[in-house]
Amino acid sequence: MGALCAAVLATTLLSATASAGPRQPAAPAKAPADRASAAQTPGSASSAARASSAKKSALAGKTVGYFTNWGVYQRNYHVKNIETSGSANKLTHINYAFGNVQGGRCTVGDSWADYEKAYTADQSVDGKADTWDQPLRGNFNQLLKLKKLHPNLKVLWSFGGWTWSGGFGEAARNPAAFAESCYNLVNDPRWKGLFDGIDIDWEYPNACGLTCDTSGRAAFGNLMQALRAKFGGQLVTAAITADASPGGKLEATDYKTAAQYVDWYLPMTYDYFGAWDAQGPTAPHSPLTSYQGIPKEGFNTAATIAKLKSIGVPTSKLLYGLGFYGRGWSGVTQSAPGGKATGPAPGKYEQGIEDYKDLKSRCPATGKIGGTAYAHCGNQWWSYDTPETIAAKGDWAAQQGLAGAFFWELSGDTANGELIKAIK
User: Fold this and answer.
1) Could you say which of 116, 180, 203, 251 is catalytic?
2) Considering only CA atoms, which of 199, 233, 203 is closest in space to residue 64?
């Protein structure tokens, strides 16, 4: 039953961290690339020192990767793959996605994948098979084994996502009770020592995602305040919208006030454009900066970060997001961005989306724009980040003084961790 449910959920949860909501994209505020991504003035010793300091800060910063519980089904991606790919050596934190939000409480998303599935010796992180009478199995046990190999690695349980955010409105009516339920579940004795905190992925507070929420501007902050009070010194983080448009989703909620209760925000700076606009125009889904001809000015990472800074969110609490996948259209004749399309390109699990590990050979990059890559092959047009563009985004993040990077999600990378190893 767990496998069946996860297979059904997989196609909808793939866009669970969409930045502006693929069903209802809205334009973020303009942040000119020459301002938002400006480097230090050349020739200045103090500027060079600041740049060097920022670079060291980024290199020593956070690298947070999402691991999806449904990935153990069709994708055949397991905790062991985090180790064999070399990704575990690069990660500082893993966000385990997703737990559900039901009846105003945190609940388990998929018990079979989470803590019931038995692993054979060859599938297990430490080469030891699960036994039939073992009290804890599944991903949770495998993650505990991974943490033994990497004692500094932290794991957070992420709740919500695109599909399961509808329950947050009810949770916000009694934040203390919600926080109590989450704390008890995250720190359940059955998986003692696994989780170091909680990540909230509410899409979107007082705004529309898969469903529309009318909880009010203060609801998100009240929820985060209750979680901080309950979780104490454990980590409390939140994935948030990247819609920085005037009157957009970032303005629908008091993210500045809520910021005092979180360890960091994960603004979802991807999925700005995609084949939910079936006729195009084609555009990169995760541009770093604006570019001439972009369909909606301001739909880019620099604009999102600039907006969050402008409303008073500390830079030390901001990560930037990377997608380990591409978004694409079919029926495209124009190689450069801005072409017309007839619909989404075919994808292995969902139309219009494909893992980087498949796209790199299936449709190799043919150009770059706005700090990311795009590819035109046959009648298909795709956009995705490559090791080269990820490295450049890391340089930009260092100049901005950001706290690190996060990405959606681990199974999209190559077997040898090509993308995560490019993160600076």
Assistant:
1) 203
2) 199
State pTM to two decimals.
0.87
Dihedral over Cα of 66, 70, 72, 76: its sign: negative
DSSP reduced 3-state for 220: helix
* 96-155 confidence digits (pLDDT tens): 999 999 999 999 999 999 999 999 999 999 999 999 999 999 999 999 999 999 999 999
Active site residue 203: yes
Q: How far is CA 109 from CA 68, 98, 211, 265, in A?
A: 11, 6, 19, 23
Give me 176's structure tokens. 């203390």
pLDDT tens-place string over residues 346-389: 999 999 999 999 999 999 999 999 999 999 999 999 999 999 99
Taking the C-alpha atoms of residue 104 and residue 166, their distance in angstroms, rounded to an integer, is: 10
Give phi and psi for 96, each to the nearest 5: -90, 115
Q: Give dist(CA 361, CA 359) in Å, integer.
A: 5
DSSP state letters, 319-381: EEEEESEEEEEES---SSTT---SEEPP-SSBTTEEEHHHHHHHS---EEETTEEEEEETTEE
Kindly write down the DSSP assignment for every residue of 80-114, as one continuous string.
HHHHHTTGGGT-SEEEEEEEEEETTEEE-S-HIII
Give the distance, in angstroms, between the CA of residue 183 and the centroid of all CA atoms in the same chain.
Answer: 22
Superfamily of domain 2-325+387-422: Glycosidases (3.20.20.80)
